[in-house]
Structures are given as C-alpha cells and as structure tokens.
Design a protein that fits this description.
alpha/beta; Rossmann fold; binds adenosine monophosphate
C-alpha cells in the first residue's frame, strides 16, 4: 500500500482525481479543506476559526492544521494507505506529515503534482462556484488571493518532495479521464 500526496494549485482537480484514485488503489481520502468545511457546517469552534481564514483566501495557521491532520490520521488506525489532498500546504506541514507517518511505521511513497496554468485555474474555479456553493470560489478577489498564497507559501512544498526524490509532475490539463490515466500510470510505475 502507498501513501500519496496529491498536490497542485486551487482548481487543479485534486478532489476530482483523488476520488478516482481512492477507488482504484483502495486508499483513504483525507482532504483538510473538506474537514474544515464539515466543521464550518456544524458550527464548531474549529469551523469558526477556519472560516475566518478561508473566507479571505488565506491558509489556516499551521498549528491548527497540523493538529487536525494528526487527529484525522489517528482516527483511522486501520487505513493502510492515505491520499492527502490539500495537505501539506507549507514546508512545516510537510515535515510534520513525515513525522506522523514515521510514528505509524510508514512514509509518503510519492507526491503527484498537477500542473495547470493560472488562467485555466480561474476559469475552472468560476465554473465550480456555480455548483460548489463555496464562497471562496465565488469571489474573484479571494480566488486571486488563493492562487497568490499557493505560489508564495505552498509551491515550495514541491522542493521538499523533490529533495526526497518523490515529486512527480503531471499535466493537469485535458479530459478528466485522460488526467486520471496519467496519474494511474505514474502510481503503477512506483508500486510496480
Ligand atoms: P481546499 O478545499 O483544499 O481548496 O481548501 C480550502 C481552504 O481551506 C484553503 O484556501 C485554506 O484556507 C484552508 N486549508 C485547507 N487545507 C489547508 C492546509 N493544509 N493548510 C492551511 N489551510 C488549509
């Protein structure tokens, strides 16, 4: 079994592709954004805190997000392989993830980084806003901020996995099925 980081800017298709990969490889999908949204819906204290950052397109602080990730991973001792979607988004988060998995006797097998250029991301997020009901997709200024935060704070995470020889870049433009096939090919090459 393998643990995968599915990486890429907002609108790259991480959620869509993750739901396909979980089925084929029997992985557990862990999206920090989904967990935050669940907490917002249920009006928890964590939800209220997360919302104050998400509505502005900013990252939720590392200490809160790392604690959340630890508790989500610990909730599932039976899981043999995770697909991390939207985590890690900073280098400290990437280091924390390595530590959490080491304690569990496992590690990240590969990082799949979906590459999509900025204009295409903005188009996709504008379309997604119609169905997603996500306030952070509906406001162009927030979308712009999320892309800017990705470039400044999250893109360096790629170097973290590059240094470990685990980063694989995947063209994230094209038919959804075609992109899924590209991801399958990269995973199969690693798991053999
Ligand atoms: P996502 O669903 O992955 O697009 O995440 C939506 C929003 O949730 C982001 O714009 C951040 O505000 C917050 N978020 C999700 N994951 C993280 C993370 N790993 N670190 C910090 N903030 C996060």
């Amino acid at each position: 079994m393998i643990n995968i980081v599915l990486f890429g800017p907002p609108g790259a298709g991480k959620g869509t592709q993750a739901s396909r990969l979980v089925k084929k490889y029997n992985l557990f999908h862990l999206s920090t954004g989904d967990v935050f949204r669940f907490n917002i819906k249920n009006e928890t204290d964590l939800g209220k805190l997360a919302r104050s950052y998400m509505d502005k397109g900013q990252l939720v602080p590392d200490d809160v997000t790392i604690q959340l990730l630890i508790s989500e991973v610990e909730k599932h001792p039976e899981v043999e392989g995770f697909i991390f979607d939207g985590f890690p988004r900073t280098q400290p988060q990437a280091k924390a993830l390595d530590e959490i998995l080491t304690q569990r006797g496992t590690s990240i097998g590969m990082m799949l980084a979906l590459e999509v250029e900025e204009e295409e991301l903005k188009k996709r997020l504008t379309l997604r806003a119609i169905d997603s009901g996500r306030p952070d997709d509906a406001d162009p200024a927030v979308v712009q901020k999320r892309i800017q935060v990705y470039n400044s704070e999250t893109a360096p995470v790629l170097d973290f996995y590059r240094a470990q020889g685990k980063a694989v870049l995947v063209n994230g433009v094209g038919e959804i099925d075609t992109i899924t096939d590209r991801l399958y090919a990269e995973i199969d090459a690693v798991i053999g």
